[in-house]
Write a structure and sequence with these properties.
Length: about 290
Protein backbone atom coordinates (compact mmCIF):
# COMPACT_ATOMS: atom_id res chain seq x y z
CA UNK A 1 0.00 0.00 0.00
CA UNK A 2 2.82 2.40 0.88
CA UNK A 3 4.43 1.64 -2.49
CA UNK A 4 1.15 2.50 -4.20
CA UNK A 5 1.02 5.90 -2.50
CA UNK A 6 4.67 6.56 -3.35
CA UNK A 7 3.98 5.81 -7.01
CA UNK A 8 0.82 7.97 -6.93
CA UNK A 9 2.72 10.87 -5.33
CA UNK A 10 5.51 10.60 -7.88
CA UNK A 11 2.97 10.59 -10.71
CA UNK A 12 1.26 13.68 -9.35
CA UNK A 13 4.61 15.45 -8.97
CA UNK A 14 5.54 14.67 -12.56
CA UNK A 15 2.14 15.90 -13.78
CA UNK A 16 2.51 19.16 -11.86
CA UNK A 17 6.04 19.74 -13.17
CA UNK A 18 4.94 18.97 -16.74
CA UNK A 19 2.02 21.41 -16.47
CA UNK A 20 4.33 24.09 -15.07
CA UNK A 21 6.82 23.56 -17.88
CA UNK A 22 4.08 23.78 -20.50
CA UNK A 23 2.85 27.03 -18.98
CA UNK A 24 6.30 28.53 -19.55
CA UNK A 25 6.67 27.44 -23.20
CA UNK A 26 4.61 28.97 -26.00
CA UNK A 27 3.58 26.95 -29.03
CA UNK A 28 5.03 28.55 -32.16
CA UNK A 29 4.45 27.93 -35.83
CA UNK A 30 7.45 27.60 -38.12
CA UNK A 31 7.94 27.94 -41.85
CA UNK A 32 8.96 24.75 -43.65
CA UNK A 33 10.99 24.50 -46.83
CA UNK A 34 7.80 23.53 -48.66
CA UNK A 35 6.15 26.65 -47.29
CA UNK A 36 9.08 28.82 -48.38
CA UNK A 37 8.82 27.41 -51.90
CA UNK A 38 5.08 28.17 -51.86
CA UNK A 39 5.89 31.80 -51.05
CA UNK A 40 8.29 31.99 -53.98
CA UNK A 41 5.73 30.37 -56.31
CA UNK A 42 3.10 32.95 -55.35
CA UNK A 43 5.53 35.87 -55.83
CA UNK A 44 6.72 34.46 -59.17
CA UNK A 45 3.13 34.09 -60.38
CA UNK A 46 2.47 37.73 -59.48
CA UNK A 47 5.62 38.78 -61.36
CA UNK A 48 4.31 37.03 -64.47
CA UNK A 49 0.89 38.63 -64.06
CA UNK A 50 2.46 42.10 -63.82
CA UNK A 51 4.98 41.36 -66.60
CA UNK A 52 7.79 42.27 -64.21
CA UNK A 53 11.12 42.51 -66.06
CA UNK A 54 12.96 40.54 -63.35
CA UNK A 55 13.42 40.17 -59.64
CA UNK A 56 15.06 38.09 -56.94
CA UNK A 57 12.75 36.55 -54.34
CA UNK A 58 14.24 35.56 -50.99
CA UNK A 59 12.49 33.82 -48.10
CA UNK A 60 13.90 33.69 -44.56
CA UNK A 61 12.67 32.01 -41.37
CA UNK A 62 11.61 33.85 -38.20
CA UNK A 63 15.26 34.23 -37.19
CA UNK A 64 16.25 35.85 -40.49
CA UNK A 65 18.02 32.76 -41.87
CA UNK A 66 17.77 32.18 -45.62
CA UNK A 67 15.50 29.27 -46.59
CA UNK A 68 14.93 29.70 -50.31
CA UNK A 69 15.85 32.07 -53.12
CA UNK A 70 14.95 32.37 -56.79
CA UNK A 71 16.41 34.78 -59.32
CA UNK A 72 14.22 35.56 -62.31
CA UNK A 73 15.82 35.97 -65.73
CA UNK A 74 17.21 39.42 -66.40
CA UNK A 75 17.78 40.43 -62.77
CA UNK A 76 21.03 42.17 -61.82
CA UNK A 77 23.50 40.09 -59.78
CA UNK A 78 23.35 42.15 -56.57
CA UNK A 79 19.61 41.61 -56.35
CA UNK A 80 20.09 38.42 -54.35
CA UNK A 81 21.99 40.13 -51.54
CA UNK A 82 19.50 43.02 -51.42
CA UNK A 83 16.43 40.78 -51.39
CA UNK A 84 17.84 38.68 -48.53
CA UNK A 85 18.53 41.87 -46.58
CA UNK A 86 14.98 43.09 -47.13
CA UNK A 87 13.47 39.79 -46.00
CA UNK A 88 15.71 39.65 -42.91
CA UNK A 89 14.90 43.27 -41.95
CA UNK A 90 11.14 42.68 -42.20
CA UNK A 91 11.44 39.74 -39.79
CA UNK A 92 13.89 41.14 -37.27
CA UNK A 93 11.99 44.43 -36.99
CA UNK A 94 8.53 42.89 -37.48
CA UNK A 95 7.25 45.27 -40.13
CA UNK A 96 7.50 45.98 -43.88
CA UNK A 97 10.78 47.60 -44.91
CA UNK A 98 8.96 50.50 -46.58
CA UNK A 99 8.27 51.80 -43.05
CA UNK A 100 12.00 52.36 -42.50
CA UNK A 101 12.63 53.77 -45.96
CA UNK A 102 9.92 56.37 -45.34
CA UNK A 103 11.28 57.26 -41.88
CA UNK A 104 14.80 57.79 -43.23
CA UNK A 105 13.44 59.72 -46.22
CA UNK A 106 11.66 62.03 -43.78
CA UNK A 107 14.80 62.92 -41.89
CA UNK A 108 15.64 60.21 -39.35
CA UNK A 109 18.97 59.44 -40.98
CA UNK A 110 20.48 58.10 -37.74
CA UNK A 111 18.80 54.76 -38.52
CA UNK A 112 21.26 54.25 -41.38
CA UNK A 113 23.99 53.68 -38.78
CA UNK A 114 22.57 50.22 -38.02
CA UNK A 115 24.80 47.40 -39.37
CA UNK A 116 24.08 46.30 -42.95
CA UNK A 117 23.89 42.66 -41.84
CA UNK A 118 20.77 43.47 -39.84
CA UNK A 119 19.19 46.39 -41.65
CA UNK A 120 18.25 46.96 -45.28
CA UNK A 121 15.77 49.88 -45.24
CA UNK A 122 14.56 49.52 -48.83
CA UNK A 123 10.97 48.92 -49.90
CA UNK A 124 10.24 45.32 -50.84
CA UNK A 125 10.48 43.30 -47.62
CA UNK A 126 7.34 41.93 -45.91
CA UNK A 127 6.85 39.65 -42.88
CA UNK A 128 5.06 36.34 -43.46
CA UNK A 129 2.27 36.00 -40.90
CA UNK A 130 0.29 32.83 -40.14
CA UNK A 131 -2.43 32.85 -37.48
CA UNK A 132 -1.10 36.08 -36.03
CA UNK A 133 2.50 34.81 -35.75
CA UNK A 134 5.46 36.00 -37.82
CA UNK A 135 6.94 32.81 -39.25
CA UNK A 136 9.35 34.34 -41.73
CA UNK A 137 9.86 37.12 -44.23
CA UNK A 138 10.02 37.61 -47.99
CA UNK A 139 12.14 40.16 -49.81
CA UNK A 140 12.11 41.11 -53.48
CA UNK A 141 14.61 43.21 -55.41
CA UNK A 142 15.09 43.97 -59.07
CA UNK A 143 11.51 44.31 -60.35
CA UNK A 144 10.43 47.34 -62.35
CA UNK A 145 10.26 49.62 -59.30
CA UNK A 146 10.44 49.61 -55.50
CA UNK A 147 6.64 49.61 -55.41
CA UNK A 148 6.55 46.53 -57.64
CA UNK A 149 9.16 44.83 -55.44
CA UNK A 150 6.72 45.25 -52.56
CA UNK A 151 3.76 44.02 -54.64
CA UNK A 152 5.56 40.77 -55.38
CA UNK A 153 6.63 40.40 -51.75
CA UNK A 154 3.07 40.92 -50.54
CA UNK A 155 1.78 38.33 -53.01
CA UNK A 156 4.33 35.86 -51.65
CA UNK A 157 3.52 36.65 -48.01
CA UNK A 158 -0.18 36.14 -48.75
CA UNK A 159 0.42 32.62 -50.10
CA UNK A 160 -1.10 31.14 -46.93
CA UNK A 161 -4.02 33.57 -46.67
CA UNK A 162 -6.57 31.37 -48.42
CA UNK A 163 -5.35 28.26 -46.62
CA UNK A 164 -5.79 29.94 -43.24
CA UNK A 165 -9.16 31.48 -44.02
CA UNK A 166 -11.98 29.87 -42.08
CA UNK A 167 -15.20 29.85 -44.13
CA UNK A 168 -17.19 28.99 -41.02
CA UNK A 169 -16.01 32.08 -39.15
CA UNK A 170 -18.74 34.76 -39.16
CA UNK A 171 -17.81 37.96 -40.99
CA UNK A 172 -17.91 41.37 -39.35
CA UNK A 173 -21.27 43.16 -39.59
CA UNK A 174 -21.74 45.66 -42.38
CA UNK A 175 -21.50 49.24 -41.11
CA UNK A 176 -24.04 51.69 -42.58
CA UNK A 177 -24.39 55.41 -41.81
CA UNK A 178 -27.34 57.32 -43.25
CA UNK A 179 -26.63 60.76 -44.68
CA UNK A 180 -28.08 62.68 -41.72
CA UNK A 181 -25.64 60.96 -39.34
CA UNK A 182 -22.76 61.60 -41.74
CA UNK A 183 -23.73 65.29 -42.02
CA UNK A 184 -23.91 65.62 -38.24
CA UNK A 185 -20.53 63.97 -37.95
CA UNK A 186 -18.93 66.35 -40.45
CA UNK A 187 -20.47 69.36 -38.67
CA UNK A 188 -18.33 68.74 -35.58
CA UNK A 189 -15.58 66.48 -36.91
CA UNK A 190 -15.69 63.02 -35.39
CA UNK A 191 -14.70 59.38 -35.66
CA UNK A 192 -17.41 57.84 -37.80
CA UNK A 193 -16.18 54.23 -37.60
CA UNK A 194 -13.75 52.61 -35.16
CA UNK A 195 -14.58 48.92 -34.93
CA UNK A 196 -11.57 47.42 -36.67
CA UNK A 197 -7.90 46.94 -35.80
CA UNK A 198 -7.09 47.56 -39.47
CA UNK A 199 -8.78 50.87 -40.26
CA UNK A 200 -10.82 53.79 -38.93
CA UNK A 201 -13.02 56.37 -40.68
CA UNK A 202 -12.93 60.00 -39.56
CA UNK A 203 -15.24 62.76 -40.75
CA UNK A 204 -12.99 65.76 -40.27
CA UNK A 205 -13.62 69.50 -40.30
CA UNK A 206 -11.09 72.33 -39.97
CA UNK A 207 -11.50 76.08 -40.03
CA UNK A 208 -7.93 76.97 -39.05
CA UNK A 209 -4.40 75.61 -39.18
CA UNK A 210 -3.54 72.67 -36.96
CA UNK A 211 -0.52 71.06 -35.35
CA UNK A 212 2.04 69.04 -37.26
CA UNK A 213 1.26 65.33 -36.89
CA UNK A 214 3.07 62.01 -37.23
CA UNK A 215 1.24 58.68 -36.93
CA UNK A 216 3.82 55.91 -36.45
CA UNK A 217 1.46 53.07 -37.42
CA UNK A 218 -1.43 54.64 -39.34
CA UNK A 219 -1.50 55.85 -42.93
CA UNK A 220 -3.97 58.69 -43.61
CA UNK A 221 -6.05 58.44 -46.80
CA UNK A 222 -7.63 61.88 -47.20
CA UNK A 223 -10.55 62.71 -49.50
CA UNK A 224 -11.62 66.36 -49.57
CA UNK A 225 -15.37 66.95 -49.59
CA UNK A 226 -15.55 70.76 -49.44
CA UNK A 227 -13.17 73.71 -49.09
CA UNK A 228 -9.42 73.93 -49.50
CA UNK A 229 -6.26 74.05 -47.41
CA UNK A 230 -2.49 74.20 -47.66
CA UNK A 231 -1.08 70.82 -46.60
CA UNK A 232 2.61 70.22 -45.90
CA UNK A 233 3.93 66.64 -46.01
CA UNK A 234 7.37 65.32 -45.15
CA UNK A 235 10.07 67.54 -43.67
CA UNK A 236 10.96 67.81 -39.99
CA UNK A 237 8.54 68.40 -37.11
CA UNK A 238 9.49 71.38 -34.92
CA UNK A 239 9.13 70.91 -31.15
CA UNK A 240 7.85 67.32 -31.42
CA UNK A 241 6.02 65.85 -28.43
CA UNK A 242 4.57 62.37 -27.95
CA UNK A 243 0.87 62.89 -27.22
CA UNK A 244 -0.22 59.24 -27.21
CA UNK A 245 1.15 55.82 -28.12
CA UNK A 246 2.63 56.04 -31.66
CA UNK A 247 1.40 59.65 -32.00
CA UNK A 248 3.59 62.78 -32.25
CA UNK A 249 2.50 66.42 -32.49
CA UNK A 250 4.59 69.54 -33.11
CA UNK A 251 4.31 73.27 -33.66
CA UNK A 252 5.02 73.22 -37.40
CA UNK A 253 7.05 71.50 -40.12
CA UNK A 254 10.36 72.68 -41.51
CA UNK A 255 10.87 71.80 -45.16
CA UNK A 256 8.66 69.14 -46.73
CA UNK A 257 6.38 69.45 -49.76
CA UNK A 258 3.63 72.07 -49.81
CA UNK A 259 0.47 71.67 -51.88
CA UNK A 260 -3.05 73.09 -51.97
CA UNK A 261 -5.74 70.43 -51.63
CA UNK A 262 -9.37 71.11 -52.49
CA UNK A 263 -12.72 69.45 -53.21
CA UNK A 264 -12.38 66.09 -54.92
CA UNK A 265 -8.67 65.66 -54.18
CA UNK A 266 -7.28 62.49 -52.63
CA UNK A 267 -3.93 62.35 -50.85
CA UNK A 268 -2.35 59.37 -49.09
CA UNK A 269 0.08 60.11 -46.26
CA UNK A 270 2.07 56.97 -45.35
CA UNK A 271 2.60 55.98 -41.72
CA UNK A 272 5.56 57.79 -40.18
CA UNK A 273 5.27 60.78 -42.56
CA UNK A 274 4.92 64.24 -40.94
CA UNK A 275 1.95 66.28 -42.21
CA UNK A 276 0.51 69.68 -41.29
CA UNK A 277 -2.53 71.71 -42.30
CA UNK A 278 -0.60 74.98 -42.54
CA UNK A 279 -3.43 77.21 -43.81
CA UNK A 280 -7.19 76.71 -44.18
CA UNK A 281 -9.33 78.82 -46.49
CA UNK A 282 -12.69 79.31 -44.77
CA UNK A 283 -13.37 75.72 -43.73
CA UNK A 284 -12.50 72.33 -45.11
CA UNK A 285 -14.31 69.03 -44.61
CA UNK A 286 -12.71 65.75 -45.54
CA UNK A 287 -12.78 62.01 -44.92
CA UNK A 288 -9.74 60.40 -43.35
CA UNK A 289 -9.38 56.64 -43.62
CA UNK A 290 -6.73 55.56 -41.13
CA UNK A 291 -5.23 52.31 -42.42
CA UNK A 292 -2.90 50.19 -40.29
Amino acid sequence: MKSFFRILSAGLAISIMTAAAQAQVADRKSLTLEGAKKVITAATAEAKRLNAPGGVIAVVDDGGNLMALERLDGTFAAGATISIGKARTSVLFKRPTKFFEDIIKNGRTAMTSLPDSLFTPLQGGVPIIVDGQIVGGVGVSGAASAAQDEELAIAGANAFAMKNANPEMPSAPVAYFEKSKVSDSFAKGAVLFDSSDKYMVHTSRRDKAGLAEVHAKDADIIYVMEGSAVLVTGGTVIDPKTTATDEIRGREIKGGETRVISKGDVIIVPAGTPHWFKEVTGAITYYVIKAR
